[in-house]
Structure formats: C-alpha cells, structure tokens
Request: fold
Amino acid sequence: MPVLFYIFSAIALVFGAMVVVLRNPVSSALSLVMSFVGVAALFVLLDAYFIGTIQILVYAGAVMVLFLFIIMLLDLKAEARRKLNFVAFGGGVLITVAFAIQIYMVLESFGPGAQKLADAKLDLPAASAANAEGLTPSIHETLQSGSLPDTKIIGHVLFTDYLFHIQVVAVLLLVATLGVVILSKKQLK
Amino acid sequence: MELTLNHFLAVSGLLFTIGLGGVLLRRNIIIIFMCLELMLSAASITLAAFARFGTVNGLPNYNGQMMIFLIITVAAAEVAVGLAIIVALFRARRTIHVEDINSMRG
Reply:
C-alpha cells in the first residue's frame, strides 16, 4: 500500500508542478488532468471510492474539456517570454516558501497526525450493528457481508442529513448556468 | 514505513503550495484558474484523510466526504462561470495576460 501511495502522490505533485512550470496552456491543462487522476487514486486509497470516481468524472472529464475548449476557442499560443517583474516574482516565491515552511511546522507539531492507517480500521459488521436504525436494509446486508457500500451510504446521507444542502447546490448550479448564458451573449448590456 | 495521517496531509499541503505558487507567479489568467482548481483538490485530500482516519462506529466519517462532494460541485460551477468571464474579458481586451488588464473602465 505505501508503494501505491508514493506512486500516486508523486503523480499528483509532479504533474501539479508541471501545470505551473510549462508555458503552453494546452500542456498545462493536460498535466492538470494527470494531477487530478493522482488525487483520485489517493481518494481510493482512503476508501472514498465514490468521491474518487466523481473526481475523475467531473474534473478529468467535464472541467478539463471546458478548459481545453476555452484554450482552443481563444487560440492561445505558448506565452512569449516577457521581461520578468523581479519584485512580484520574488514576492511570490517568498510567500510560497514561507507557506510551505508553515505547513511543515504545523504538521511537525500535529500530534494526531502520527495515527497509522492500519490502526484506523473499518469494522463493517460492527458499523451495521451500531447504526441499527439509521441505514437501509440493503446497506446492512452489504456491511454484514464484509464490503463497504460506499455509494449507497453516500446516497443515504445525501438524501437524509444533507437534503437541504443538496437543494442549495441545485439552485447554485441553476444560477451558474444562467450566469454563463448571460455572460456569453455577444452584447453585454 | 507505515502510512500515517501526516503522509496524506503533507501531500495535500505540498499540492496546495504548488497551487498557491502558480497563482502568485503565473501571469496567464487561465493557468491561474487551473491552479485554483489544484488548491481546491488539495483541500479535498485533507477532508478525505480526516474522514478516513476519524472513523465513526467503524465507518469513515461520511460528513467529510459530503463536504468534498459539495466542493467538487461548487468548483464545477465556478469553472463554468469563471471561464465565461474570461471569454468575455478576452473579447473586450484581446488579452488574457493579467498585467495588461489594469483598468476598471468598461
């Protein structure tokens, strides 16, 4: 398991760095896809199978197509080298390095961070017994057979505890759609 | 060496730092936008890690995963609106270089 973790986090980080370093926007967009694939694999390592799938579908699928479409629509070429604004560049590097050091120091002193993945076991039959009322019969069946019904549980939580939130998200998506249509009209008034 | 919570948090922190560096250092507005997406997915890794390590009755904490679900939806909406704004901007100014976009005049 650690081997897979290192491979996929290396993919996520190296391609993430390539997004920033490469000069051609199309290369950046494709590196971003690979970075998201690495992140999705990390989600799967963390037993969040549904979220991993959604990450691939939404980001690597929909969002990236949108990015590539816009890049090609605007017909962007690789950036010409410009004269570097040294104050801005130095400031950016300084803030980034300071942020990295800060994160390192927080993780250094974060006690619960030493908890091992092997210690945080998933106990599926016990989960079925502890949530006797909360979950549906089909979820209990899968839990007792010893596999994690990830998507079923997410669906259950989504339409019980998070019913209001999902409706707010629905309104948000509607507003975003309308906003995009209005923004894309030829004549802005 | 066994996997610990800190491994995942470190990856998330590094990915967030890369995204922050991109936002601060790059001058192409589309790349800046991609780096914002990178930072959002770094935050998602943190939530997934805490959801997995903070087990409730032997199951991962699904509240954390719901938060990721909401982040992904909001990010998708944000990309759609943001790219529409970039297209409108490009139509008006013929540039996506942030240093060329420096006036508030319409």
